[in-house]
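Researcher: Can you fold this with adenosine-5'-triphosphate in place?
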Amino acid sequence: MDFECLAVIFERLETVSSGNTIRDLLAEFLKTVAQEDLVNVCYLLLGRISSDFDDTVLGIAEKSVLKSIALASGMEITKITAMVRETGDAGIAAQKVLQKKPRTLVPLKPLTVHDLVGKMHILAASTGSGSHDAKVTQLATLLQRASPMGARYVTRIALGTLRLGAGYKALLDALAIAFTGDKKNKVILEQAYNICPDVGIIAETLMTKGLKGIEAIDIQVGRPIQMMLCQRVEVLDEIPDKIPGEVTVEAKYDGERIQAHKNKKGKITLFSRCLDVITDQFPDVVKALAKQIDAEEFVVEGEVIAIDEKGNHLPFQLLMQRRRKYDVEEYVAKIPVQIKLFDVLYYNGKSFLHEAYVKRSALLEKIVHKNKAVTLTERIVTEDVMEMSDFFQKMLKEGYEGIIIKSRASDSVYQAGVRGWNWIKWKKDYETSLADTFDLVIIGAYSGRGKRQGVYGALLCAVYNNKSDTFESFCKLGTGLTDEVLEQLPVLLKKYQREKCPARVIVKKEMEPEVWFEPVIVVEVLGAEITQSPFHAVGLALRFPRFIRFRDDKKPEQATTRREVEQMLRK
Ligand code: ATP
């Protein structure tokens, strides 16, 4: 397929904001895509060149992209830089200057989707001396082979800034319409996506094997699966209603969740809560898992926490210092960690996703040789709420966040990507009847006054509506933003700034911000109470919100949902 066909669709998608129109446009287009292009087209529609979890980084800095535009157009780089400053968008600048470019003597082969993705992968993989200049030249050739409009999108893809308002959910809806003729089948695709978060594979399987093929998708070593999540209750006494009979009660640690995959060759890959590859951050965890787990192949999950020499747990902030690309070994020694394993999803060629929790934890006990670096979560088995409460108090004394109550029933399977009732969390905040913290998405900002002149004074934050795939305003956040955070915000948000309300964002007139942002950055916010509100799109508002921290381990679609805040609203 010529890249131009895709560029035409990109351009149309840019002008629409209605979710239904986006879906219909995508569905009509997907019907026209040949099998050999489908996977790449799906990735590109999400602004990527590979699956969401693939750690391929294009790594082309804006400066280099501008050099490529200069090379492709013959225009001076200073002029291009000035245009980018003026328009705020290198893509538009590329389109404008390439419209004026002189024709090459020999016409170049038009750019195809296959070539673009293939060449972008080569660009991403090239490192070392000389690679920078080679990247600039190769990207310039791609820009020349595209039409001026195509160059706009090639530029954005190279920079990682192509956002069309179509998230993976809209794409799954469109695939359901295009290949099954029935939008309702999106539920089946979403379930499969939870186990295989790769729209390319989902699309190709659907096209070639139909819904039967989709239903047969299972866990695969090396491909992360969306993590199972917890529900919450108002009072601990509700537990027997929600999970009758004996339950496993485990400590809830405030660390970083890790899904570890070991393949037959012995290679271990660590995935974060967001399904990013974080193997290089934790060489110590990799080594320990390889030694302490008795299995040729496995997929296990656990929480990593920082510990002192005696093995006592240290605060989350210390663990965060392990999130680094450089000086990793120095920090391995400085901040030792321990992984507390709590689940096994795959073992020696067999998927355990559909097995009950009792069976999964028995297997974990069998294959893990505990030591200081690798251990299992502390746990008890009981059906008595008093015992749960005692265990909870004990965990708080040990400095942990709370407990997670897990079903042991025959249907307590691993529910990938689901916040279901098989796992229920109970935290200190709930007991002291403070509201929980919320993970909200920044969708806008208001400029500061007085002391905050020149920086953002407040942020407009949204919850995620997972039914309509929209981000709905929920609170204006001004408290808790330290000077350091206020300085960080413009840098962090610049890339996502938009002139008008972005697609999928819903805000009422009264709350319209001065600056809009693509819903990308997630922040953790503590709130005192949820009240009805005519001003916020969700119909509710969080009172006295206070910024706690950035949740860069969460994607916007993993933010607190509209449904959750509706459930929390105390009548
Ligand atoms: P939070 O912000 O409270 O971590 P969350 O939205 O990330 O919540 P929840 O479903 O509320 O996810 O809580 C589950 C999280 O708790 C897991 O993602 C994991 O990181 C952490 N956790 C700590 N201890 C355990 C445990 N024993 N079993 C499962 N998850 C645990």
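Model: Folded with adenosine-5'-triphosphate in place. The mean pLDDT is 91.
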